[in-house]
Design a protein that fits this description.
- The N and C termini lie far apart (77 Å).
- The protein is of the alpha/beta class and 765 residues long.
- The protein has 2 domains: 362 residues, TIM Barrel (Alpha-Beta Barrel); 369 residues, Alpha-Beta Barrel (TIM Barrel).
- The radius of gyration is 26 Å and the shape is globular.
- The longest helix is centred in the last third of the chain and has 25 residues.
- The protein is built from 27 helices and 22 strands.
- Strands 1-12-11-10-9-8-6-2 form an 8-stranded parallel beta sheet. A 5-stranded parallel beta sheet has the order 17-19-20-21-22. The protein has a 3-stranded mixed beta sheet with strand order 13-16-18.
Length: 765
């Protein structure tokens, strides 16, 4: 019985790649230094899998930024603005596409399906000339082989690549991206030929778009693509991998009929209905890669249940054709539980990070082969029994409060137009009010203070004094820049979800449970293991301290329940919506305490609401109903004069605009500039939005500083589709990843642009 891993985390157990990337971008280390760190990490990963007994070990899943961007480089599909003139794509061009540079903006970044990972969206059109411009896949296969590890090279499949792309600027939005299939297949053929020549016997194509609702034309593209590659693939075993959801029946038929394909990989954790399709009809003589170990969560696998599933599948396809696998890449989990020294033993026994999931995969494969490790399986069963019976998981008062939510839609009593009038009388803001999203740069000194406080190296008084000094600096800077609605900069927070989770019951935290979000950006998701409640106020102290430093409105800054849920590792013993309602009640308590303390503007970020949207249309309405309801619960009890803001970023919002309206926030700030102002198209199409709205005027994930004229041009585009009295001016997202040398001039230009437009609008009356 064989075993397989779809993909593996890249950052390293202690975020080694993150620090190497940032050092390289800052000019402190060379390209060779960066490459050495990367090579050491790859070597360690391959040897770890090989040592654990994994048969099918992936290569080319490592990336300096993102696997879709790697595919863009592979195909030489570099947008003209980056000035690439051919040849092997180097770091300058690669990172300019990812991050922008001093003269040109970055490519669009958006969420990878329904995860918190981001990818760089390819920009394609009929004029793009494709060429084999990155030999990374072949180089990494050879690198592993030289270490004595035979790997399965992984490529983003040709059809998924095109379906995840967008028409380039200036290309008609109706342009069929799939019409480029015949243009990219020759490059794929070159890569495949090189891999065969290097000795590869297997190749994996990731085609995750097969889990979406695809039309017959899109499904036919898969048939055409693999028919076109069939002769080149001859002599190779070919695995087509899917993940994140069930494969629809029509897509399953297409997939299992593809020419030249030897094996099919399915997510049997989030795609449990796919089991029925497999049982109904699985092609004889083909391999089934059964993804029974969850690649998206950190709970220990229920080994007994997985063995039962695998034994049933073995009777259908034969043990010699069944491969035990992860449900998707382990990129979405933390790296190694061994590094967690502060988790208590009970909770730790319930968990499995990427390194432990490799062991689970191999243990399942051995069990099916008749070599079951009784001790390992026994410890696993004991851990599951412990979790089910642990008193720390259940809080009857919380469950009762959540159950009482039924029967109300928790809307504010007054409509948004009347509320905005009441708020304007109190706040007295100018037209086109300026604000930022919440965080300001997290300096080395600030991180040191937090680190030393957690390590008990400085006292609480010293910590509070240092944080207040940082807040004072941020407040003073915003006043000097003449920003209208201020933020305190969040110096007390390392992460917007972790900060709240640390103060809520039912959460556990890791020391090194980092997960890549994009590029060098890593997050440390909390673990929700039990019922959630708020023992005491979480932000009131810092928000009131900040408000006392200024006469201008100071936003109270909270993370919303849906985002806390979607950016955590969530318990699987109850429906997600029940956990979300519990979090919503906790945030509601905080909102009402902030209002009582005199905070008149409260932002409840729901950056991840769109991210959690199910991948199948039939499941969207139910999710949006409870997600939007959860947000409304948080603020349904505040006065009309209290202005509720929310924020969303880096997703495609146009398809859920009615649900955004239904959230009934007073003001929404939303990412816009990096996605080529895609958001504005929904308003051009006639959608009426009556609440305040601030589409981002510049991209904060790039070091590039936009000019006043560029920002003013963006605001004018917004004014063409939005009413003047509802438009806000703000960046795309929070500023924590930027440096003050970038933030200060960018915000100065933003405020100048707003003032310029105010003057022009006043003179036009």
């Amino acid at each position: 019985m064989a075993s397989h891993i779809v993909g593996y985390p890249r950052m390293g157990p202690k975020r080694e790649l993150k620090f190497a990337l940032e050092s390289f971008w800052d000019g402190k280390t060379s390209a060779e230094d960066l490459k050495k760190v990367a090579a050491d990490l790859r070597s360690s990963i391959w040897k770890q899998m090989s040592g654990a007994g994994i048969k099918y070990i992936p290569s080319n899943t490592f990336s300096y930024y993102d696997q879709v961007l790697d595919t863009t480089a592979l195909l030489g599909a570099v947008p003209p603005r980056y000035g690439w003139t051919g040849g092997e794509i180097g770091f300058d061009t690669y990172f300019s596409m990812a991050r922008g540079n001093a003269s040109v903006p970055a490519m669009e970044m958006t969420k990878w399906f329904d995860t918190n990972y981001h990818f760089i969206v390819p920009e394609l059109g009929p004029e793009v000339t494709f060429s084999y411009a990155s030999h990374k896949a072949v180089d990494e296969y050879k690198e592993a082989k030289a270490l004595g590890v035979d790997t399965v090279p992984v490529l983003v499949g040709p059809v998924s690549y095109l379906l995840l792309s967008k028409p380039a600027k200036g290309v008609d939005k109706t342009f069929s991206l799939l019409s480029l299939l015949d243009n990219i297949l020759p490059v794929y053929k070159e890569v495949i030929s090189d891999l065969k020549a290097a000795g590869a016997t297997w190749i994996q194509f990731d085609e995750p778009t097969l889990v979406r609702d695809l039309d017959s034309h899109q499904l036919q593209a898969f048939s055409n693509a693999y028919a076109g590659l069939e002769s080149t693939l001859s002599g190779l075993n070919v695995l087509v991998e899917t993940y994140f959801a069930d494969v629809p029946a029509e897509a399953y038929k297409t997939l299992t009929s593809l020419k030249g394909v030897t094996a099919y990989g399915f997510d049997l954790v989030r795609g449990d209905k796919t089991l029925d399709l497999i049982k109904g009809d699985f092609p004889k003589g083909k391999f089934l890669f059964a993804g029974v170990v969850d690649g998206r969560n950190i709970w220990a696998n229920d080994l007994a249940a997985s063995v039962s599933t695998l034994e049933e599948l073995a009777t259908l396809v034969g043990k010699d054709k069944l491969v035990v696998s992860t449900s998707c890449s382990l990129l979405h989990t933390a790296v190694d539980l061994v590094n967690e020294t502060k988790l208590d033993n009970e909770i730790k026994s319930w968990l499995a990070f990427a390194a432990q999931k490799i062991v689970e995969v191999n243990a399942l494969a051995k069990a099916l082969a008749g070599a079951k490790d009784e001790s390992f399986f026994g410890a696993n069963a004991a851990a599951h029994a412990s979790r089910k019976s642990s008193p720390r998981v259940t809080n009857e008062a919380v469950q009762k409060a959540a159950a009482a939510l039924k029967g109300s839609d928790h809307r504010r009593a007054t409509n948004v137009s009347a509320r905005l009038d009441a708020q304007q009388k109190k706040l007295n803001l100018p037209i086109l009010p300026t604000t930022t999203i919440g965080s300001f740069p997290q300096t080395i000194e600030l991180r040191r203070v937090r680190r030393e406080y957690k390590a008990n190296k400085i006292s609480e008084d010293e910590y509070v004094k240092a944080i207040k000094e940082e807040i004072s600096k941020v407040v003073k800077l915003q006043e000097e820049l003449d920003i209208d609605v201020l933020v305190h900069g969040e110096p007390e927070r390392n992460d917007m979800v972790e900060y709240f989770g640390e103060q809520l019951s039912g959460f556990a935290f890791t020391v090194n449970g980092w997960v890549q979000s994009y590029g060098s950006r890593c997050v440390k998701p909390p673990i929700i293991y039990g019922d959630v409640s708020r023992p005491k106020a979480m932000t009131v102290f810092w928000s009131t301290a900040a408000q006392s430093m200024t006469a201008r409105p100071m936003k109270g800054m909270l993370t919303g329940p849906v985002t806390i849920l979607n950016w955590s590792f969530v318990r699987v013993d109850q429906p997600r919506y029940e956990t979300c309602y519990q979090i919503a009640l906790a945030i509601k308590d905080e909102v009402e305490d902030l209002e009582k303390a005199g905070i008149n503007v409260i932002q409840i970020d729901e950056a991840a609401l769109r991210e959690g949207l199910p991948l199948r249309k039939s499941e969207e309405a139910f999710y949006l109903d409870w997600a939007v309801h959860s947000f409304r619960i948080t603020n349904c009890g505040v006065q009309d004069t209290t202005q509720i803001h929310t924020h969303m970023c880096y997703s495609n919002f146009n398809d859920i605009i009615q649900s955004i309206i239904d959230m009934d926030a007073d003001v929404i700030t939303i990412e816009n500039s990096r996605s080529d102002e895609k958001l504005l198209s929904v308003f051009r199409e006639g959608v009426k939005y009556g609440a305040g709205i601030g589409p981002g005027v510049y991209d904060i994930h790039s070091p590039r500083i936009p000019s006043t004229e560029e920002i003013a041009d963006r605001i004018n585009k917004m004014l063409a589709v939005l009413e003047t009295n509802i438009l806000w001016v703000n960046p795309d997202c929070g500023l924590k990843t930027r440096k003050y040398a970038e933030v200060n001039p960018a915000l100065k230009n933003m405020v100048a642009a707003a003032k310029l437009l105010r003057t022009q609008l006043a003179s036009a009356k």
